[in-house]
Amino acid sequence: MSKQVKIEIPPEISFLDLGLHKDDDSAITYKLSVLNSMLAYNNIKLSQLTQDDVESLLVMWYISHRKNGGDPDMTAERLFNAVADTPKFDVKIHWDAIIEPPTPEQIKDLRQHTGMTQPQVANLLGLSNRQLISDYERGNKSPNLQTWTLWLLLTGQHPTLTLSDKRS
């Protein structure tokens, strides 16, 4: 069973403080001290995280930053804009805002649209079995409706609902 952790951003730092930059060799760099400050604020050590954890954290931090009116980061914007603007599937909504079951193609399109790897999606959804995302994309298994809806919410792709950041 995976453990969910609530991450809070210290009020004195902003996503833009990371100083994201794309090097000539296409590597993305940032100020590790800013990431470490945020992790320390949450009593987390960088050594406790995988690269996928860090990447997922940075993506979700940027999404939250923008949804809360934060200024765009050009490097992050270029990364997100490199992915298609809209998923390739029509969205159908039930009265309770849970989306209809996705096809394997819709699952893969959403993952690629958000620029995430299969392990990153599994981590984002708190799935202990990282093979599930591959199984979903191949049509061997299908996520339950709650998992699919959560996936859409966490990636900002839900057509009617959004997540809000509870900051004081």
Describe the 3D structure:
This protein is mostly helical and 168 residues long. The protein folds into two domains: 15-81, no CATH class; 84-168, lambda repressor-like DNA-binding domains (434 Repressor (Amino-terminal Domain), Orthogonal Bundle), CATH 1.10.260.40. It is 42% helix and 2% strand. The protein contains seven helices and two strands; from the N terminus they run E-E-H-H-H-H-H-H-H. It has a two-stranded antiparallel sheet with strand order 1-2. Strand 1 and strand 2 (28-29) form a beta hairpin. The longest helix has 17 residues, at 51-67. The chain is globular and about 45 Å long. The model is unreliable at 91-95 (pLDDT under 50).
CATH topology of the largest domain: 434 Repressor (Amino-terminal Domain)
- The total of helices stands at 7
Mean pLDDT across all amino acids: 80
- Cα shape: globular
User: Major sheet: size, sense and barrel closure?
Assistant: 2 strands, antiparallel
CATH top level of the largest domain is Mainly Alpha
Tell me which CATH architecture of the largest domain applies here: Orthogonal Bundle
Number of domains: 2
Strand content: under 5%
The residue fraction in helices comes out at 40-55%
Low-confidence regions: 91-95
CATH H-tier superfamily of the largest domain: lambda repressor-like DNA-binding domains
Gyration radius over CA:
16 Å
Distance between the termini: 31 Å
Number of E strands: 2
Q: What structural category arises from helix and sheet content?
A: mainly alpha
